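During the second year of the project, the team shifted from modelling isolated chains to modelling whole assemblies. The rationale, set out in the original proposal, was that interfaces cannot be judged from single-chain predictions alone. As a representative example for this report, we include one of the complexes processed in the last quarter. Its constituent sequences, exactly as entered into the pipeline, are reproduced here:
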Amino acid sequence: MYALLTGPMLWLTFAVFIGGLAWRVYSYFKGLDWKLDRVAYAAHRDFGIRGAVRSIGAWIMPFGSHGWRAKPIFTTLFFCFHIGIVIVPIFLAGHAVILKTRFGISWPAIPMVLADVLTILMLAAAVGIVIRRIALPEVRIVTSLYDYLLLVITVAPFVTGFMAVHQIGADYEFWLLAHILTAEIMLLAVPFTKLFHVVGFFLSRGQLGMDYGIKRGGMKGTNMAW
Amino acid sequence: MPEGKFCNRTPVNTQEALEALLGDKGGKQYYAEMEELDVDKEKLAASIKNTCKSRTGTWLEICAHCGLCADSCFLYQCNNRDPKQVPAYKIQTTLGEMVKRNGDVDNAFMRHAMEVAWSQCTCCNRCGQYCPYGIDMGVMFSYLRGLLHSQGFVPWELKIGAGMHRVFKAQMNVTDEDWTETCDWMAEEAQDEWPGLEIPIDKQDADIMYTVNAREPKHYPEDISEAAILFHVAGENWTVPSSGWEQTSLAMFAGDWEACTMQVKHVYAAIERLNPKRCVGTECGHAHRATVIEGPYWAGRPDGLPPKPYLHYVEWLAEALRTGKIKIDPTKRIKQLVTLQDSCNYIRNYGLKEITREIISYIVEPGYFVEMSPNKEHNYCCGGGGGFNGIGRFRPQRNRALMVKRDQILATGAKLVIAPCHNCWDAIRDLEEEFKIGIKWSFLKPLVISMMEIPEHLQPKEEEE
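Output from the structure prediction step:
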């Protein structure tokens, strides 16, 4: 089981993850249509790029946009959640060791304590996000079971990973297998679900930035205050 | 019943059809027929297939259901934070559902979608500013309006409005003859006070070609003479076209893209014919959007720009004040608390936020200008945008929508609101009528005329004693 999950299954997962996202990016760009979108992307490419960068920049920065500043609690939850998701798996010492021993790649790692803190913050934020979904009528009305399913898929590798690392519940083998399996499920889900926003955020946010950068004021010498 | 006499999938293309539709007072029969109107599902599915691409598809799919858009929507705010007014909910349950079902929707669905598209969204585009993904539901509602229009589910007044553009090339039944006569009449009247004033029609190669909102020749001709006075005093070499003078587009509110294209091409044809250096449009937000922002795309121009530089009135006025073409008498500047309405169509959606404030700096005594909060590109819709002002069926909803602007104005303490947009101007007039908060409202033109210095050579000659 372990051999399967860390062998062929792992490669398949990476192939689907990367290939799927590449296809997402490709098809998004291919489907952009200056006539339908009414944005002259090609004619004013530099204004477009400038607008896209400004738009993405304002929203990727914690409290960088009016929208983030208007909702400080949600913004805090949001960034705790996303920073943990991105930083922990990529820079976990345990993952770096695998890269070193299996492929001989030297990979930077963050201290274990930091990984723990980020993971706990991320899990706490997930709980906060669920509570918010249930508590606020304006969020509840747009929430579906699918939203909870995606949260479970996203959170599972972190819960199981945390259990394995800290040997909670004694059964290390079980948690390790569960961790690898749930992580593969998550990566496989990314291109096929809303989780494709790992690239989709940049595409969509960038597109509106281009729209404002080209057509809605960017060429008039004023900047949209995102 | 497949299609009604008035309510059907065919736009109004003739004067007879237009008059017949107008004769159906209040759209009584029209809306009765709408209850029976069939949905052409094949046509709808084909439209979706051809026009719902990357951007819209991704917007519908990627929405994280986070609800951050809720508070960005003034209609959510003024309807007691009704969750059914959350922008994401509004678009997902209408356009989202229609796309998901690939057009397989029934009459009741379409009528509901019509109500949401025209009474729960003014296409102000504010939500797109507050969505982490930049999902612009105003853009999507505009797209939805197009789909609904193509199936005949459009408010009565807007079917008429789009029909007016098709028949008269104007949003109202103003013919080119009516227009030029009004110009001549206004010039004649103004000449008493302004010797030498002209409204030059169809002058070739002028510096400025001026275009208006058809309401001006129809109901507010003084607006035309005010524009003429200001051009006259500024010493501009200007003209108006005898045809192609109407800059607005109710067809845009209706989602009648074909009529939008016809209308804007008509204006561009006037530009080609008269070859001015640049164009200036009147104090109207949606007119600017229709002719300058969206228009180039309807006309199929790959650079997304009109054939000649096309200024909003505030751009020309700021320039005239900046360069001293028009000088303000400092003693006549506004010396009462005054606030400014930022029109969504050329502030949020065209970036002219600093230009209007530059004008304020010339015409208001320092210390008397109070900003609304929020303002500039984050300002709220006046409450009547996107056609909302003109739809009788949704008047109660519109009146409620005015409450946000009312409260914003009250919070400034100002008793004068400068509203350089026909639509905002109307909404603010209506909110005063509805709530009686004791305010006045004004375009820029009359204010500037009341306080400008008149150059010696333009002053009326003293009567012989």
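The longest strand of chain B covers residues 208-211. Chain B has three domains: 39-154, 185-311, 324-451.
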